[in-house]
Specification:
Blueprint (H helix, E strand, L loop, with lengths): L6 H9 L25 H8 L10 H6 L4 H4 L4 E2 L2 H5 L9 E2 L8 H16 L10 E8 L2 E9 L5 H14 L2 E6 L2 E10 L7 E13 L2 E14 L2 E9 L5 H19 L13
Antiparallel strand pairs: 1-3, 2-5, 3-4, 4-9, 5-6, 6-7, 7-8, 8-9
């Protein structure tokens, strides 16, 4: 979780934006022109399901539950943890334009929270317990994977909040240093794993290095009891939905294995 950069750091971050993940939003439409509700069956099912194993997640356990290059296939290359910890993109920095919203200003506040959490890599809030993350690169795309414990907070509250964003924040603008960027948020489907889950596709249109650029991200979160995994994947080449889904599927099983006192399988094909 990092602090916002100084103006100089933002300039440097913008120069590197072509190689970083941007975080954000996308428009929600159910195909007939009407907005789709952000509250989904997965959210309701998540509240009804019996929580998964209640073992306390340790720092060692969180690291053991991380995914590897083999888990997400394609040409992803793992980066140093210190590098992944400092992945931030200046394109997601900005102040939400309240005038975009016909509804209460609270909707604008939710969209601002989304943008801030994408930059700070704390979509579900700050972990209250063990926490581990790992980053991967592929061309101009990046994938950030995190395992964390929220034993003193409620990750379901954050998942429920995420479910409202495709409707509240379907399209809006943010402004930073006089530059406007368009943000869109839509809901995406995820494998039916864990106790509850929520997926979003966030698109930010702006400029990077003086040229027009569009950042597309798949953002996913899965709850397993009071613990959760989060995945942010995509970049200037487009979203990485397939890789995000694979990370969610393998990562959730890894976390369940660790909480059950087992060692995660080194062979992704063994995960059903």
């Amino acid at each position: 979780m990092t602090r916002r950069p100084s103006p100089l750091a933002r300039v440097l971050s913008t120069a590197l934006a072509a190689g970083t993940l941007l975080a954000t939003a996308a428009c929600s439409d159910d195909g007939d022109g009407s907005r789709a509700s952000g509250i989904t069956a997965t959210q309701v099912a998540g509240k009804q399901q019996t929580p998964s194993p209640s073992a306390t997640l340790t720092e060692d356990g969180a690291r053991a539950a991380l995914i590897t290059e083999a888990d997400i296939e394609d040409d992803w290359t793992q980066v140093k943890d210190t590098e992944a910890e400092n992945w931030n993109d200046s394109l997601v920095i900005g102040t939400v334009d309240v005038s975009d919203f016909l509804t209460a200003k609270t909707d604008a506040a939710d969209c601002q929270r989304l943008m801030n959490s994408l930059f700070d890599d704390d979509l579900l809030g700050r972990p209250s317990g063990a926490n581990a993350l790992r980053g991967f690169e592929q061309g101009d795309s990046r994938l950030l994977y995190q395992v964390a414990s929220y034993d003193r907070t409620d990750p379901q509250d954050s998942l429920s909040w995420m479910a409202t964003l495709p409707e509240k924040c379907d399209q809006f603008t943010v402004t930073e240093d006089g530059e406007q960027r368009t943000v869109q948020v839509i809901e995406t489907s995820l494998p039916k794993v864990g106790d509850a889950r929520q997926g979003l596709r966030v698109t930010v249109q702006g400029t990077a290095g003086g040229a027009e650029a569009t950042l597309t991200l798949t953002v996913a979160a899965v709850r397993v009891g009071n613990d959760a995994i989060t995945v942010t994947a995509g970049g200037l080449d487009g979203d990485e939905q397939d890789s995000a889904e694979q990370a969610v599927k393998i990562g959730t099983q890894n976390l369940k294995d660790v909480l059950a006192g087992k060692t995660p399988s080194p062979d992704p094909s063994e995960v059903e």
